[in-house]
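Listing S7. Sequence submitted for prediction.
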Amino acid sequence: MAPRRPGGRDALLSPVESPVPPTADPAGLYAALDLGTNSCRMLVAQPRGSQFHVVDSFAKSVQLGAGLEASGRLSRAAIGRTISALQICRRKLESHGVTRMRLVATEACRRARNGAAFLSEAEAETGLRLEVIQPEEEARLAVISCAPLVSTRTEQLLVVDIGGGSTELVWIDLSSVAASERPRAIMRLHTGFAASDDAFPRARVVDWISVPLGVATLRDQFIDVIDDAARFALMSWHFEEQLAGFSPYLAEPNRAGFQIIGTSGTVTTVAASHLGLKRYDRTKVDGLRMTSEQIDRVIRQYLALGPEGRRNDPRIGRDRHTLIMSGAAILQALLRAWPTDRLTVADRGLREGLLYAQMSADGVLEDGPF
C-alpha cells in the first residue's frame, strides 16, 4: 500500500469529532480505548486543570494483525485474544461507571477484509462498539497528546506516531505563534486544522503522511531475511523510501528551532534502554530528550545482542523483543531524513489524544499553562 496524505501541503482536515453530550461534569470520568495492530490499550481519567489524572489503565499485546500481511484477514486466534482483552476493558468501564468514552480501532481493522465482521462480533461478545478511525484523525490525535511536550522555542515540529500497522507523521509550523502560546496552540488543533483568528492562535499543519508500515507490518515484510543485520538495514532503507516526498525543507533549517516528538512503544523502549532501566518508569522516560548518537548507540547494542539476546534483555521485555528492530529501523530512517539531531520521547499517544479531544470539546480543561 502506498503512503496516504492530503492533496498537497496546507490541505485542511476535518475536526476531531468527539461524540459526547454537550454538557459534562468536570469531576466526571472519561475513557479512551485504542485497539491497534499489536496492542489493546485503555485509559480511564478525570479532568484536572489543563491536563487529566489517570484513574485506571489497561494494556495488553493481542497481536490482532498477526498474519494479516500474508492473508489479508484477521485470524480466529487473534480475534479470540482481542475479544478477551476487550471483555476486561468492559468490566473496568462498568466498575468505574464511565459514560463518556471513545473506543477506536486503527490500521488492522482498516486493512482486514473481515475487519467489519470482527467489530460486529466484538460488540456482540462485549457490548463495546468500536469505531474505525482514518489515518488523518489518528495523526491529529497523536499530535494533540504531545502538546505538553512542545518546547516554547520550537518553530517547526514533527510528531511521529509509530504504530503496529502504520506510522503517522505530522509537520507543524509554529513560527507565527507567540513562544508562550505554542503548547496551547497545539492543543487547539482538536477543533480542526483550519486557520484561526489572532485571539486564539493555532498551529499550522503544513503537511502530513500516513505510511502503511508499522512495527508489525514492516517486520512481516522482511521476516524471510535470515541475517539479523541485513534484515534491519533493509527495513530501514525500505521505510526511508516511503518518505521520499515528505520533507520539510529543500535547504536545512535552523536546527535550534526544530523539534521531533516520537510517540510509540519503540521510542519509549529505546529511551528505557538508554537509561538502563530494568523496570520501566514512565516518569523518567516521558519528556526525555535523546540525541541521534544516543539512539544509534542503543540500536547498535540491540544488533550486537542478536535475537536471543534481545529476548532476554529486561530493558526490552518479552512483549516487544520481536518488534523492537523493525521499530528501530523506522526511527533510524526518520532521523536520517529530518534536520535535527535530537528526539523528544513521548510516553503518550492515541489514548491521550482521545481524552484531550473529548475533554476539550466538553470545556472541562483549563486553558492554562502545561
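Caption to Listing S7: primary sequence and predicted C-alpha cells for the chain studied. Residues 137-350 form a domain with the Nucleotidyltransferase; domain 5 fold (CATH 3.30.420.150). Residues 76-96 form the longest helix (21 residues).
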